[in-house]
Automatic annotation (TrEMBL):
Reactions it catalyzes: D-threo-isocitrate + NADP(+) = 2-oxoglutarate + CO2 + NADPH
Cofactor(s) listed in the protein's UniProt record: Mg(2+); Mn(2+)
Residue numbers marked as site, Critical for catalysis: K253, Y418
Keywords carried by this UniProt record: Glyoxylate bypass, Magnesium, Metal-binding, NADP, Oxidoreductase, Tricarboxylic acid cycle
Tree of life domain: Bacteria
Keyword match Flavoprotein: no
Family to which the UniProt record says this protein belongs: Belongs to the monomeric-type IDH family.
Binding site for NADP(+): K80, L81, P82, N83, I84, S85, N133, G582, S583, H587, R598, W599, D600, R647
InterPro entries (UniProt xref): Isocitrate_DH_NADP_mono
Name the UniProt record assigns to this protein: Isocitrate dehydrogenase [NADP]
Binding sites annotated in the UniProt record for substrate: S130, A131, V132, N133, P134, V135, L136, R137
Species of the source: Mariniflexile fucanivorans
Keyword Magnesium: yes
C-alpha cells in the first residue's frame, strides 16, 4: 500500500481540506493509495503537549513530532498545507477557546516565576511562532509558478496599481548597529561543541546556552541589534514620516523570527507612543502591558484601570496619534493599525501587497496613501527598496508580459536564521557575549549593552551541498540563468560564497549562466530581465527564500497560493507544500459571515500532483502517475475555464472549484487509454458529475449569503464544519 500523508492545519486551508480531501480519497482509492491525515493545527499542537492536564479521552498524539521523524525517512510523502505560526495573541485566543470547550489546559504564563509555570511556558513557547515548518523541512526548497499558471496570468492579468516616479513611498532601514552591520561569521574546521556566555562589566559570567554540538563544516554567525541604535532609528523615522506626510508602517516577521522580531515590534510601539510610556510606564507595567505583543495588548489591558486613569491614558494615546505621523492600517473600518498585532503584518506578504498597490497602504480614512516602510535590519531590506526604485523608474510590472522568478532556497535542517530562536537573547546588562568552543577557545565575541538583541545562527554543510546541487539541477532543467543572492560584504554570505564556489566544481556547469550577486544587484538584474519577459532563478538563503517566494509570485500571478512548492527531502522522501502563502484569516472571516470561501486550492492541486508523481516512482505505481498526469490536465482545464473561486458571495467559491476539479479529473481519467481499469471506473463517474453539474453548482451557491456556525475558530465542531464544507447532497452521493 502506498501512503500519502495529508496535513490538517488551520483557518482557510483546513476549511478547504474538508471539501477537497473526500474527493482525493475517492479518486485514489482504487489505485492502492492510502491517504492518511495528521493534525498539526495550532489546537492539536497545544493539546498534544499537555496530556497531563487532559482526560484520557481528550488526549491526542503529537502528530508534528511523528511527521518530523517521518520527514527524515525515504518513504515520506507529505502534503503540507499552510498553518498558523502563532503570535502570543493568537496562542492565547486558541487556549481560551480550547478551555471553553472543556479542555483544562493551563493559561499562558506571561511571567513564569516558579518551576511549574516555567514548565508550562516552555511547552507553549515551543508551539509559538513558526514551529511547524522548520520541523518538517528536512530538505531545501524548490518553488516556482507552473507554466499553466503563468499562461493563465498572462491571459487573465490580476490588477496592478500604477507606479508614478514621484511616489514618496520608500523603505527605511538602519545604516549601522543592526544585525547586518554587526555580523561575524566563520566555518568550523572540525566538529566541536560550543556554549554561549554573557560576561557583565564586573566579569560575572552567565551561560546563555549551555554546551551543544556543531558539525564539521558548519557555518556559524553571531550578531546583534543595538537597542540604542534601534531606538534612535525609530525616532528619526517616525519624525520623518510625519514631516514628509507619508504613512508610517512597520514590516517584520514576528512569527518566524519569534524571539527577535516581537522585541523590535515592541520598541516601535513604545516609541510611537513615547508620551504614553514616559508618563504612564509604571502603571502600564503594573497591569502587565507587554507591547511586544502589539499596541493591541495595551488596549486590552486598559479596562482593568480605574476610569479616571483610563481616560487620562486614552487622551495621551489620542495625542500620540494626533501629533505623530498617520499610521498604515490593517483594517481602517475597525481602526486596527499596523502596530496593533505583530502577526497582522508579515513582511513576506505585506511588502509585495504594497508594491502591487502602487506602493501604497490604507490610511485611517480607508484611502490609499504613499508609505514609509520601516524594516529596521538592513540585511534584506535592500531588495524591497531596489524593487520600489525599479517601479518608480519603469512603472508597475505587467503580468501579461513579465517573466518569472523561480526560487531555490536553502532551508534544510533549520538553516540560517530559521534555527536561531534558541540562540537569540535580549541582553540583560552591558558586557560581552562570547561563543566558546569545547577547548575554551573564543570563536566569536561581541560587546553588548543592556537591551541589545544578540543572536547566533548555524547552517550545516550537508544542506548547503544539497542546495547547490538543486540550483544546478533547476538551472539545467529549465535552461534558465540562476543567481545566488549573496553579498560578499556580509560576513555570513562571505562564508557561504566560499562553499558555493567549491561545490559548484562538483558539477558540469558548461553552458549554464550561474552568478553570485549581492541581493540589491540581484534584484536589479532580475527585475530588468523580468520586465523584458525573461526568467531568472533566484538561489537564496532562507530569509530571502521566504521573501522572494511571495514577492515575485504576487507580482507575477497575483498570489503565492498558485506556486508549486516542492521540498525534496534530503533522505529521499518528498514534502509537498501547497502554495507559498499563509492561512488567510480574512477568508475565514468572510466564510463565517457569508458562507463564501474564496480560498484558492490551486496550490493543493499542484502539490497533490507532484506527490502522486513522487509516489509513482518511489513505489513503482504506474496508476499513481496516471492520476498525477490527469490531475495536472484537470488543473490546467480549471484555469482555462476560469473555475477558480470568486471573491464574491453567491458565485463559485472554494467548494465549487473543487467540484470542477473533480469533474475535469474524472473526465481526464475517463479519456486516457493507458489504464483500462481507471478508464472503466471513471467513465460513469465523469458522466454523473457532468450530468449533475447544474444541480451541484446551484446546491453549492444557494447556501451562500448567510452566516455559518461552526462552533470554534481553532477547533471547530467537526460535524458542523464538515457539513458546512460539503453542502451538496448530489456531489456527496456521487463521491460515496
Ligand atoms: N507555509 C505556512 O505555513 C505559512 C503560514 N503563514 C501563516 O498564515 C497566517 C497569515 O499570514 P499572511 O502573511 O497574512 O498571509 P496570507 O497568505 O494568509 O494572506 C495574504 C493574502 O494573500 C491572499 N491569499 C493567500 N493565500 C490565498 C489562497 N490560497 N487563495 C486566495 N488568496 C490567497 C489573500 O488575499 P485576499 O485578501 O486578496 O484574498 C490573503 O489575505 C499567519 O498565521 C502566518 O504565520 C504564512 C505564510 C506561510
Ligand atoms: O513558517 C512560517 O511561519 C512561515 C513560512 C513562510 O512564510 C514561508 O515558508 O514562505
Ligand atoms: Mg513566506
Amino acid at each position: 500500500m502506498s501512503k500519502i500523508i495529508y496535513t490538517k492545519t488551520d483557518e482557510a486551508p483546513v476549511l478547504a481540506t474538508r471539501s477537497f480531501l473526500p474527493i482525493v480519497k475517492a479518486f485514489v482509492k482504487s489505485s492502492g493509495i492510502q491517504i492518511e491525515t495528521k493534525d498539526i493545527s495550532l489546537a492539536a499542537r497545544i493539546l498534544a503537549v499537555f496530556p497531563d492536564f487532559l482526560n484520557e479521552d481528550q488526549r491526542v498524539s503529537d502528530d508534528l513530532a511523528i511527521l518530523g521523524e517521518l520527514a527524515k525517512s525515504p518513504v515520506a510523502n507529505i502534503i503540507k498545507l499552510p498553518n498558523i505560526s502563532a503570535s502570543i495573541p493568537q496562542l492565547k485566543a486558541a487556549i481560551k477557546e480550547l478551555q471553553s470547550q472543556g479542555f483544562a489546559i493551563p493559561n499562558y504564563p506571561d511571567e513564569a516565576s516558579n518551576d511549574a509555570d516555567k514548565d508550562i511556558k516552555s511547552r507553549y513557547d515551543k508551539i509559538k511562532g513558526s514551529a511547524v515548518n522548520p520541523v518538517l523541512r528536512e530538505g531545501n526548497s524548490d518553488r516556482r509558478a507552473p507554466k499553466a499558471v503563468k499562461n493563465y496570468a498572462k491571459k487573465n492579468p490580476h490588477s496592478m496599481g500604477a507606479w508614478s516616479s514621484d511616489s514618496k513611498t520608500h523603505v527605511a532601514t538602519m545604516e549601522s548597529g543592526d544585525f547586518f552591520h554587526n555580523e561575524k561569521s566563520l566555518t568550523l574546521p572540525e566538529a566541536t561543541s560550543i556554549k554561549i556566555v554573557h560576561t557583565d562589566s564586573n566579569g560575572t559570567d552567565t551561560v546563555l546556552k549551555d554546551s551543544f554540538k556543531l558539525l564539521k563544516g558548519e557555518i556559524i554567525d553571531a550578531t546583534l541589534l543595538s537597542k540604542s541604535a534601534l531606538v534612535s532609528f525609530l525616532e528619526t523615522q517616525i519624525a520623518d514620516a510625519k514631516a514628509s506626510g507619508v504613512l508610517f508602517s512597520l514590516h517584520m516577521k514576528a512569527t518566524m523570527m519569534k524571539v527577535s522580531d516581537p522585541i523590535i515590534f515592541g520598541y516601535a510601539v513604545k516609541i510611537f507612543f513615547k508620551n504614553v510610556f514616559e508618563k504612564h510606564g509604571e502603571t502600564l507595567e503594573k497591569i502587565g502591558v507587554d507591547v511586544n505583543n502589539g499596541f493591541g495588548n495595551l488596549l486590552e489591558k486598559l479596562p482593568s484601570l480605574p476610569e479616571a486613569k483610563r481616560n487620562e491614558i486614552q487622551a495621551d494615546i489620542d495625542a500620540a496619534f494626533k501629533n505623530g505621523p498617520a499610521v498604515a492600517m490593517v483594517n481602517s473600518d475597525k481602526g486596527i493599525t499596523n502596530l496593533h498585532v505583530p502577526s497582522d503584518v508579515i513582511i513576506d506578504a505585506s511588502m509585495p501587497a504594497m508594491i502591487r498597490t502602487s506602493g501604497q497602504m490604507y490610511n485611517a480614512a480607508g484611502k490609499l496613501q504613499d508609505t514609509k516602510a520601516v524594516i529596521p535590519d538592513s540585511s534584506y531590506a535592500g531588495i524591497y527598496s531596489a524593487t520600489i526604485d525599479f517601479c518608480k523608474k519603469h512603472g508597475a510590472f505587467d503580468p501579461t508580459s513579465m517573466g518569472t522568478v523561480p526560487n531555490v532556497g536553502l532551508m534544510a535542517q533549520k538553516a540560517e536564521e530559521y534555527g536561531s530562536h534558541d540562540k537569540t537573547f535580549e541582553i540583560a546588562s552591558n558586557g560581552t557575549v562570547t561563543v566558546i568552543d569545547a577547548s575554551g577557545y573564543t570563536l566569536l565575541t561581541h560587546k553588548v549593552e543592556a537591551g541589545d538583541i544578540w543572536r547566533m545562527c548555524q547552517t550545516k554543510d550537508a544542506p548547503i551541498q544539497d542546495w547547490v546541487k538543486l540550483a544546478v539541477t533547476r538551472a539545467k532543467a529549465s535552461e534558465t540563468p540562476a543567481v545566488f543572492w549573496l553579498d560578499e560584504n556580509r560576513a555570513h554570505d562571505a562564508e557561504l560564497i566560499k562553499k558555493v564556489k567549491t561545490y559548484l566544481k562538483d558539477y558540469d556547469t558548461t553552458g549554464l549562466d550561474l552568478r553570485i550577486l549581492s541581493p540589491i544587484d540581484a534584484t536589479l538584474f532580475t527585475c530588468e530581465r523580468l520586465k523584458d519577459g525573461k526568467d531568472t532563478i533566484s538561489v537564496s538563503g532562507n530569509v530571502l527564500r521566504d521573501y522572494l517566494t511571495d514577492l515575485f509570485p504576487i507580482l507575477e500571478v497575483g498570489t503565492s497560493a498558485k506556486m508549486l512548492s516542492i521540498v525534496p527531502l534530503m533522505n529521499g522522501g518528498g514534502l509537498f507544500e501547497t502554495g507559498a502563502g499563509g492561512s488567510a484569516p480574512k477568508h475565514v472571516e468572510q466564510f463565517l459571515s457569508e458562507n463564501h470561501l474564496r480560498w484558492d486550492s490551486l496550490g493543493e492541486f499542484l502539490a497533490l500532483a507532484v506527490s502522486l508523481e513522487h509516489l509513482a516512482s518511489a513505489n513503482n505505481n504506474p496508476k499513481s502517475q496516471i492520476l498525477a498526469d490527469t490531475l495536472d490536465d484537470a488543473t490546467g482545464k480549471l484555469l482555462d475555464t476560469g473555475k477558480t473561486p470568486s471573491r464574491l458571495v453567491g458565485e463559485l467559491d472554494n467548494r465549487g472549484s473543487h467540484f470542477y476539479l473533480a469533474l475535469y479529473w474524472a473526465q481526464a481519467l475517463a479519456y486516457q487509454t493507458k489504464d483500462a481499469d481507471l478508464k472503466a471506473e471513471f467513465e460513469p463517474i465523469a458522466k454523473q458529475l457532468s450530468d449533475n453539474e447544474a444541480t451541484i453548482v446551484s446546491e453549492l451557491n444557494q447556501i451562500q449569503g448567510k452566516p455559518v456556525t461552526i462552533d470554534g475558530y481553532y477547533k471547530p465542531n467537526e460535524t458542523l464544519v464538515n457539513n458546512a464544507m460539503r453542502p451538496s447532497k448530489t456531489l456527496n452521493s456521487i463521491l460515496n
